[in-house]
Write a structure and sequence with these properties.
The protein is mainly β. The chain is built from one helix and six strands; from the N terminus they run ββββββα. The chain starts with a strand and ends with a helix.
């Protein structure tokens, strides 16, 4: 999971512990942090800082939604029901 996620005034998000930026558009960014996937939705978003060696990424723009999901969330429904 991300070591640290900070949102400032709904305009800047800082993620420390990021291991991979899977995708980035003006409306959505997907960042991998260990077994956790962080999906950021908004508008006019742009990468302000990308330092994967230091495991830090920053996005600026109008941030509307942040969703965290893990690999366990991606298992098929039947597999989750019949553990």
């Amino acid at each position: 999971m991300a070591e640290f996620v900070s949102i400032e005034n709904q305009n800047l998000i800082v993620i420390k512990g990021a291991t991979k930026v899977c995708s980035s558009t003006q409306n959505q960014a997907v960042v991998q942090s260990g077994d956790t996937t962080i999906t950021i939705s908004g508008s006019d978003m742009e990468v302000k800082k990308l330092d994967l060696d230091g495991k830090e990424v920053c996005f600026a723009g109008k941030i509307n939604n942040v969703k965290f999901s893990s690999k366990a969330d991606k298992q098929p429904l039947l597999k989750r029901i019949f553990k």
